[in-house]
Amino acid sequence: MLFVVGAMAALSIDVVTIYTARSEAQLAADAGALAGARVFANSGVTSDASRRSTRNARNLATMIATQVASQNVVGGRTLNPSTEVTVSFPNERDPAFDTNPHVTVQTQRTDLPTFFARIWGRTANTVTASATAEAYNPSGADAVNSGSATIPVAPLCVKPWLLPNIDPTQSSSTGPAIFDSSGDILNANLVGKGWPNAPVANPNTNGLYSLCNGDCSLGNGGITPVAPGAYYPGAVADFSPIQASPACASGFNSYQLAVAGCVQTPISCGTSSSINNSSVNIDPIPYVPNNGTRDADTVAAAECLIHYVTSPGDSDSIDTATTRPPFQFLGGNQNPVAGAVGKEVMVSDSLVTIPVINNPPPNTPTSSTVQVIGFLQVFLNPQSLAMPLPANQISATIINMAGCGTSATGQPIFGNGASPVAVRLISPP
Fold first, then answer.
1. Of 287, 293, 269, whose CA–CA distance to 391 is shortest?
2. Exposure check for the chain: N or C terminus, fewer CB within 10 A?
């Protein structure tokens, strides 16, 4: 009996050890796959998928995915990155890879110690796990998941700035557009460019600022005509509730909190329906500012968000060594993660997502509901590095573009972050 009880105990230890290690290996694979996909999502490569950019993004995704997976403990120790973690891109030869790259991470351990199995001379067990994650950008004909309809996306933490569908880097109010009606990106070369911009043909000398003089209420004249790089303020009710804001947001009004904090309501794009609400409203309520104007309030809230205190070095910046995707960023002096100061980082509070809307008709005060047809992810700077910045405006650089167009329909992909390029596990769980 003692022998049988001992054998059963040893067997149970073997089984528990294997199942625990198998779960740990799966968690490591999941984390690595998601980290690799996030490289594609935050770096701009799905918006400007040139051959060189895609190759560089694969190399960077491999490094990050391997690093993240190998930091996980499996069976009592971390994984060996060179022999126990493998990264691959199963759809890299598919044309859809440009806008919907997949990252697969496989983890394994072949030397798990055994107890009961030693009776038969087996001294080690093997566990393996695999996970695949995608970075989904709905722009383009290749970003189609079912039938002939593009599936929309719905990011979190979207800022209440409704940007007309006009190239923000040039000065004409009549175009060209950012996205066409199907959501295709009309000019991939916008990635890496910003406004105000350096002297070019037809430059936009303004930064990001509000239309309607910041007040689109009926008493102030209603909704004014569009302008490139300028936004209509979004209704606060559409951009709430707001996650806890940083300490510097003390005393902010609700609009400023939506800028400095994170709006938890997903903002979708495409065709508005019962399962996909892509309709938002221009704010028709008279605005009561904190600092004299909505634009002044916007600058104060944005500088709180990006940790700007007194000098441009306070906030994060785009690494000038990455002039094309995949972009990387440098932690500023006020970055909340102390170890990130001066180091390359993959995410930044200076990266924000802005809805792009179908241009509303000019001078129609009673028409405040608009359709979101896509998103720009831009990097905010406290001042323009290319040319003088007008007062109470923000300099912005385009990092990502994700267009749904006017007909994207169905349940939107929420992903797991603020980027308009959704990141999610697709195999398993």
1. 293
2. N
